[in-house]
Structures are given as structure tokens and as C-alpha cells.
Write a structure and sequence with these properties.
This protein has 14 helices and 14 strands. With 441 residues, it is of the alpha/beta class. Strands 2-3-4-7-8-9 form a six-stranded mixed sheet, with helices on both faces. α6 packs across α7. The chain is globular, with a radius of gyration of 23 Å.
Length: 441
């Protein structure tokens, strides 16, 4: 009897300790050891948020959903606006905007529309391990959207870049569901820069706000120098460690936990319902990265693009104010030295991924696009052969001779079906025969 009482006491104390730690966990814990971002690094973020918000407007000359700080853009520089009727559900709506002040060509994609069935179909078009790409796993539905979007707008982006002297940066931005499309679109473009006029890798950037996990860890680290993820404090979606097809289950359990722990959380962290002056930290995390959903009344509001834009603008103004106060003294880290620091962080992250035995992780990023000139069997939707090698070769030849780039063919050329039945990157097939691969979770 005494022993049973002792065991029960230990269990109760253990559960109480777990509940206390779980309820007192805050989003800032994840980035507590990260370095502070500089104003130069963070300056594009509010601007990209406003461009994504602009996608929601039908007429920027007469906007209906003006953000707190205004759009601060020239409506006449919107090159193209595409709505749901024009995409026919193949991708979220987007705009193409040319920013002459910052020398950017921006393709901005809106987030999930709760009233559109097509967005749910894109989100749910995936299974764990279904789509392999560039040596890792990506979300099948989002990859299809990215390929469709490049088929539609690849020539437009190439033309704009060439017309502006090949000096502008190519920027992709998205929020929530659109962030996944933008991220995978960026991965494809980085690997096939010749299809956009030979644009250098350093001129390609991607900003994804409140991103979902749409690619395996080795790809996230590999392209960390190009793809920048922006996460506002307690946002639940980037912290959802399950595949995207289980997002809705995660939302259900999140709401259930918020109800169960709501009263206790109110007393422990009622301060988190307010807004503190924001601070911006940056890093390339490999392990221990946003693995815990935060029990907070801001868990869902922090996902909104309006709040992200508002807090990022506030953070930028605060950073500039602090920077102007210390202008008489040299900065702790010079700009050139900071660029070298970021490059070193990327190399360290790549090496860390290799040391953790992450499948297909490499110690250095690819310097050249991974193109294979040999014609390979086409895969319809990434699953079954759809044409012969001769047909693929002739079609590829006609495409490269000055016609419009077919991004479906470009992507499908990357794949061969491996011995396990998975679609494997052509250049990785030989290596896969010599090593034991643990599939990423």
C-alpha cells in the first residue's frame, strides 16, 4: 500500500512538472541563443509582407484592406495580377511587381483561403515520402503548384530581368500556403537558373512568412542562404512537426489544449496576450528548431499576415532607432564581416546536418544547377511514365532551341525510379547504391 502511494505521488509530481514546463514554455525559448539581426538584413521583411497583402486587393488604386502603415508601393508597377479564376485552382493568387527603388522583381503569393476548395486540395495532395526532389522530400501538391506557376510566369520573369539590365534581384514571397509554393518555386529556379536567363544564385531570394514545413531538413539547410523564413513568436503552423496532411488534426488538438490549459495559462502568462516591443533574432537551426507548439492566446493570431507586417515594421523602426543612437561609434560587427558570418553559419549548418546523419545531407551547397542533359523518362504527376525517351529528347531539344521553357519537363528530368520504388535524383542514384539511407520523418 505504501509502495503504491509512493508510485502515485511520483506520477502526480512528474505530470505536474511536465504540465508546469509545458504551460510556461514561450516561443522566445527557441531563439534564445540566436544572434540579433541587423536592420539591413531585416529591411525587406515588412516590404514583402505588404506585397503579399497587396495580393488580397482587387484594385490597389482603391484599396479596401489598407495595413496600419499603408502599402507604400506604386500600383502602376504591378506587372500582373492573377486571381483564382485565372489559376483555376492550380495555385493561389499572386502578383508580379517590379520595385525600381530597391531593384527587385517580386512574385508574391497569398496564403490559404478558407473558402476555396482548391486550396485544400493542394494542401492535402501529399503523403509522407510521396515526392522526392533534389535529394530530399517535398510536398507533392505544393511542388505541382510551383511548377505550374513557373510554366505560366517563367518567360515573364525572364523578360523583366533581361529588360532591366540583368541587375535586379529575383524575389519570391509568400504567406502560409503560398509560402510553401514560393519556397519550392525558389528551389527549382536555383537549380535551373539558365532557364531564367542565367541569373546568379546570389540574386535569387525568397521570403516566406509563417511557413509550413514543405521540405525535408536537408533541403531546408541546403537552401538556407536563399530562403528566409519569418516566424512571429507563437505562430502554431511553423511549429507543427507533422506532415502537412495532418495540419488540420494539429489545429484540432491545438484548440483542445488551449481550452484545457486556458485558465491555467491565463494566470501563468497573461502578459503574453499583450504585445511587447519586438526583437529580431536570426540563425540557421538544424536541431531543436521550433518543435513545440506554444500554448498561448497568440498561437493563431501570430499566424496572420497583418500581425506579421505590423510587428515586423515596428521591429524595423526600433532597430533603426537603436542604430541611429549609436551612429557615432563603429558597429560591433561590420557589414562585410556580417556577410562572412552568415556564410560561415550556413557552412556550419550544412556540416551539422551531415554529422546528424540526415539523409542526403551535403557539406557544401551546389555551386552549379543540377541539370542532366540526358533525356529521362517523363513522370506524369511524378508517378507513372507518360512518354518514351525519344519523345522526351525531341521535346527537350525543341524547348531549348528558343521556345518557351516547360518547367514540367525540367523537373521531371531530375528523376529516375530507384530500386526502392521512390523517385530519386539522377545524380544521387549511384551514391544511393553504396550507402544505407534512413528515410526522413
Amino acid at each position: 500500500m505504501f509502495f503504491c502511494c509512493g508510485v502515485e505521488s511520483v506520477v502526480i509530481l512528474g505530470f505536474g512538472r511536465w504540465a508546469w514546463k509545458r504551460c510556461t514554455y514561450i516561443g522566445a525559448n527557441d531563439s534564445a541563443n540566436w544572434t540579433f539581426a541587423t536592420p539591413e538584413e531585416f529591411e525587406p521583411i515588412p516590404r514583402m509582407c505588404r506585397l503579399v497583402l497587396a495580393v488580397y486587393e482587387s484594385d490597389l488604386h482603391n484599396p479596401q484592406f489598407i495595413p496600419q502603415h499603408g502599402y507604400r508601393l506604386n500600383p502602376d508597377r504591378v506587372i500582373k495580377r492573377v486571381n483564382y479564376e485565372q489559376t483555376q485552382g492550380r495555385a493561389p493568387p499572386y502578383i508580379i511587381y517590379i520595385d525600381h527603388d530597391h531593384k527587385d522583381i517580386v512574385l508574391a503569393i497569398r496564403g490559404l483561403n478558407l473558402y476555396k476548395e482548391s486550396d485544400y486540395k493542394t494542401l492535402l495532395d501529399n503523403r509522407l515520402g510521396m515526392q522526392m526532389f533534389d535529394g530530399g522530400f517535398v510536398h507533392h501538391g505544393l511542388l505541382k503548384s510551383a511548377v505550374w506557376l513557373l510554366n505560366e510566369e517563367g518567360e515573364t520573369l525572364k523578360r523583366l530581368w533581361e529588360e532591366n539590365g540583368k541587375v535586379y534581384d529575383m524575389v519570391f514571397a509568400g504567406h502560409s500556403l503560398g509560402s510553401g509554393v514560393a519556397a519550392l518555386l525558389t528551389v527549382i529556379v536555383v537549380n535551373h537558373r539558365d532557364k531564367l536567363g542565367g541569373i546568379p544564385r546570389e540574386k535569387i531570394r525568397c521570403y516566406v512568412m509563417a511557413p509550413a514545413r514543405c521540405m525535408s531538413l536537408n533541403l531546408a539547410v541546403k537552401y538556407a542562404d536563399v530562403i528566409h523564413s519569418i516566424i512571429l513568436q507563437d505562430d502554431f503552423l511553423p511549429r507543427t512537426a507533422t506532415p502537412l496532411e495532418d495540419i488540420f488534426k494539429s489545429i484540432f488538438w491545438l484548440l483542445a489544449l488551449l481550452v484545457v490549459f486556458g485558465l491555467l495559462e491565463r494566470y501563468l502568462h497573461s502578459r503574453r496576450c499583450g504585445r511587447f516591443p519586438p526583437e529580431v533574432r536570426t540563425a540557421i537551426p538544424v536541431d531543436g528548431r521550433f518543435e513545440h507548439i506554444v500554448l498561448s492566446c497568440n498561437a493563431t493570431s501570430d499566424h496572420g499576415i497583418i500581425w506579421i507586417e505590423r510587428e515586423s515594421q515596428k521591429a524595423l523602426e526600433k532597430m533603426k532607432e537603436i542604430s541611429s543612437e549609436t551612429i557615432t561609434t563603429p558597429p560591433d560587427v561590420q557589414k562585410f564581416e556580417r556577410m562572412q558570418t552568415i556564410e560561415q553559419e550556413h557552412r556550419d549548418a550544412l556540416e551539422r546536418a551531415v554529422s546528424l546523419n540526415i539523409p542526403h545531407a551535403v557539406a557544401t551547397p551546389d555551386a552549379e544547377p543540377c541539370m542532366d542533359n540526358d533525356a529521362e523518362p517523363c513522370m506524369d504527376n511524378g508517378t507513372v511514365p507518360c512518354q518514351s525517351e525519344g519523345e522526351q529528347a525531341s521535346k527537350t531539344k525543341s524547348t531549348s532551341s528558343g521556345g518557351k521553357t516547360n518547367w514540367d519537363e525540367v523537373v521531371k528530368k531530375l528523376f529516375k525510379k530507384g530500386e526502392s520504388g521512390h523517385l530519386v535524383l539522377n545524380k544521387d542514384e549511384t551514391a544511393l547504391k553504396n550507402i544505407s539511407v534512413v528515410q526522413p520523418s
